[in-house]
C-alpha cells in the first residue's frame, strides 16, 4: 500500500512483539512512513500517536479475544479515528467450516461460538447482525457489511 500511496503514514499496533519486529526488520521498512508499536489493546490504552487515524484495519483481530472484550476494543479503535474515519473489519463468520470442525471437538469450546485451538490461540465466530450491533454501540456508522461465502466441493465425491 505504501508503494501505491506515497503520502500515506501507517500507525500499526500488534499484541505480538515478534509481529512488530517483523515489520521493523523488513528491508522496505521506513520509520518516516510507519510507526509500529506493541500493544495489548484489551488491557491497555492504544499507544499515543502524533495524530488520529483516517482508517483502521481489524483483520482477524477481534476473533482472538474473549467476546466480553469486543465492544471495549471497538470503542478504543473508534476513539483513535478522526471524525469520518473508517474501520475495515474482516474476521471469522458464524457457522463456517472451521467452526463446525471445532463444534465436533466438544473440549475445544470455551463459550458459544468461541473456541480454543491446539496451539492455545482462540477463535470467535461472528454473526453479521452481531458485528453490526457491536460497531453501532461503539459509535460507528455501518456502511457496507456482508458475509463472504466460499463453497468447498469435495471432487472425489462427485
SSE map:
Blueprint: E1 10-14, H1 17-25, E2 34-38, E3 53-59, H2 67-80, E4 81-90, H3 97-104, E5 109-111, E6 114-116, E7 122-124, H4 128-138
Parallel strand pairs: 1-2, 3-4
Antiparallel strand pairs: 5-6, 6-7
Helix pairs in contact: 2-4
General description of the model:
With 158 residues, the chain is of the alpha/beta class. The protein has 4 helices and 7 strands; from the N terminus they run βαββαβαβββα. The chain has helices at residues 17-25, 67-80, 97-104, 128-138; strands at residues 10-14, 34-38, 53-59, 81-90, 109-111, 114-116, 122-124. It has a 3-stranded antiparallel β-sheet with strand order 5-6-7, covered by helices on one side. A two-stranded parallel ribbon has the order 1-2. β6 and β7 (122-124) form a beta hairpin. α2 (67-80) crosses α4. The longest helix is centred in the middle third of the chain and has 14 residues, at 67-80. The model has no long low-confidence stretch (mean pLDDT 90).
Amino acid at each position: 500500500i505504501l508503494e501505491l500511496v506515497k503520502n500515506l503514514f501507517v500507525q500499526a499496533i500488534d499484541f505480538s512483539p515478534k509481529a512488530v519486529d517483523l515489520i521493523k526488520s523488513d528491508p522496505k521498512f521506513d520509520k518516516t512512513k510507519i510507526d509500529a508499536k506493541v500493544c495489548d489493546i484489551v488491557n491497555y490504552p492504544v499507544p499515543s500517536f502524533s495524530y488520529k487515524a483516517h482508517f483502521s484495519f481489524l483483520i482477524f483481530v477481534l476473533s482472538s479475544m474473549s467476546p466480553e472484550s469486543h465492544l471495549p476494543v471497538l470503542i478504543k479503535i473508534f476513539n483513535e479515528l478522526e471524525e469520518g474515519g473508517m474501520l475495515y473489519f474482516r474476521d471469522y463468520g458464524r457457522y463456517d467450516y472451521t467452526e463446525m470442525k471445532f463444534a465436533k471437538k466438544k473440549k475445544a469450546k470455551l463459550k458459544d461460538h468461541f473456541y480454543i485451538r491446539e496451539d492455545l490461540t482462540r477463535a470467535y465466530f461472528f454473526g453479521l447482525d452481531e458485528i453490526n450491533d457491536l460497531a453501532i454501540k461503539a459509535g460507528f456508522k455501518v456502511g457496507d457489511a456482508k458475509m463472504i461465502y466460499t463453497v468447498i466441493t469435495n471432487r472425489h465425491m462427485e
